[in-house]
C-alpha cells in the first residue's frame, strides 16, 4: 500500500460522492449518530491525522485540534477529501521505509497508514450510500488490498468488498463470527502474530 493506492481509493470514493452532492447531506445515517455530511468531514479529518501521525513518528502528538466543517457545501467537502488524500499520499511516499507512527492499534508504518486511510474512505463512503439510499461498490482490487494489509486473518473465500465490510463490523459473513470489537493490524505484516487482535483482551494499567 502506497500513495498511489490512497489516491486511487480517494478517486473512487470522491467520484461516488460527487454523484450524490445534490442530495440531502443533513440526512442521518441509519445505525450511526452522524449525518452524511458529518461522515464525509470525518473521513478527511482521519486522512489528515494519519499524515500528521506518520510524520510525527512514534510519539503521541496531540497538540492540534483538527476539524473539517460538516456545514460546508457538499461539493467542497468532496474537494477536501481529495486534498487530504493528496497530502497523505505524498507523506506516505516520502517517508523512509523504516518509519513508524503512533496509532492506538500499533506502531504503524507508511503502508499501514495508507491502508487505514483507504479503509476509512471505503467504508465510510458505503455509510454515505446507506444514508442516501445508494449502493457504493468499489473495485475488488482496492478492497482486496485493504483487507490483506489490515485484516490478514480474514477469510479469502468470498467477495472482497463483502469481506472488508465484515472485517469492519458492517456485515455478517455466514460461518464466521460478526466482528464487533474489531481492530486493525497496522504494523508491518511480518510482525503479525497470527491472531485476530480483537480476540486479545486489552491490558489495563
What does this structure look like?
By secondary structure, the chain is mainly alpha-helical. The chain has six helices and no strands. Helix 2 runs parallel beside helix 3. The longest helix has 23 residues, at 110-132.
Largest sheet: none
Instruction: Report the count of strand segments.
Output: 0
The portion of residues forming beta strands comes to under 5%
Q: Considering DSSP H and I runs of 4 or more, what fraction of the residues is helical?
A: 40-55%
Average pLDDT figure: 94
Low-confidence stretches: none
Structural class: mainly alpha
Q: What gyration radius follows from the Cα positions, in whole Å?
A: 16 Å
- Inertia-based shape: globular
Order of helices and strands: HHHHHH
Number of helices: 6
Distance between the termini: 34 Å
Short overview:
The protein is mostly helical.
List its traits:
0% strand; mainly alpha
Helix and strand topology:
Layout: H1 3-18, H2 36-56, H3 74-94, H4 110-132, H5 140-150, H6 160-167
Helix pairs in contact: 1-3, 1-4, 2-3, 2-4, 3-4, 4-5, 5-6
